[in-house]
Design a protein that fits this description.
The chain is mainly beta. The protein contains five helices and twelve strands.
């Protein structure tokens, strides 16, 4: 589990294909003395397992499934990525609960600078957009952000200079793909409430109309 508060921006040194697995070697400015092989790292919003650690270096493997569902398949040496180590139970939760399990790939549509404030607008796939709510949370390329205006399959976020300076978001241009993860809370709410909508006893659950009103869609059949 992660928070979406990026610890550093790392540079990809090498990219190697090994039997359907993509191995990435990253150079990162972090003290990894308390990290070990097998630990989880969030790389550009994707939870990956450390398979090798050195002084300021990290090696991770990316499965075929992850390559198909995220932007990591286009990684090349020299690319900069956001990195965060897994959350300790004793840590402060400064962002929001991030699993590192990407829901879908979105695209940056527009970037507007208003003084020191930067507004970015993105398009999300329908399966991800259904969980995005104004003033809720979203993870964009591993960065925890507060949602602004949400309209159908688009949403906006506002970034302060600190966030731009500490992440890769400052380099985004219209059309660039990003990894998106919606807040996990909405997914659990939908999973728990949807079966009750089919109940014949109104006291046993939430109606189909109420679910649809709040954007949860139709309950599963059967």
């Amino acid at each position: 589990m992660f928070t979406g508060l990026v610890e550093c921006v790392a540079e990809i040194r090498t990219v190697q294909q090994k039997g359907g697995i993509l191995e990435l070697s990253l150079a990162l400015p972090l003290d990894l003395t308390d990290s070990k092989v097998g630990d989880s790292f969030c790389v550009q919003g994707v939870c990956l397992t450390a398979v090798g650690l050195g002084s300021g270096t990290l090696r991770v493997e990316v499965s075929r499934e992850t390559l198909e569902r995220t932007t990591l398949g286009s990684c090349k040496p020299g690319r900069r990525v956001n990195v965060e180590r897994a959350l300790r139970l004793s840590d402060r939760l400064g962002g929001h609960l991030v699993t590192g399990h990407v829901d879908g790939i979105g695209r940056m549509l527009e970037k507007r600078e208003q003084g020191r404030n930067v507004e970015m607008r993105f398009r999300a796939d329908p399966g991800t957009a259904r969980y995005l709510v104004e003033k809720g949370s979203v993870c964009v390329d591993g960065v925890s952000l507060t949602l602004g205006v949400c309209e159908a399959d688009t949403f906006s976020v506002h970034l302060i200079p600190h966030t731009l300076g500490q992440t890769t978001l400052q380099g985004l241009r219209p059309g660039d793909p990003v990894n998106l993860e919606a807040d996990i809370i909405g997914k659990y709410v939908e999973k728990l409430l949807a079966p009750r909508a089919t109940s014949a006893d109104p006291a046993q659950g939430v109606s189909k109309e109420l679910l649809e009103k709040y954007g949860f869609g139709s309950p599963p059949k059967g």
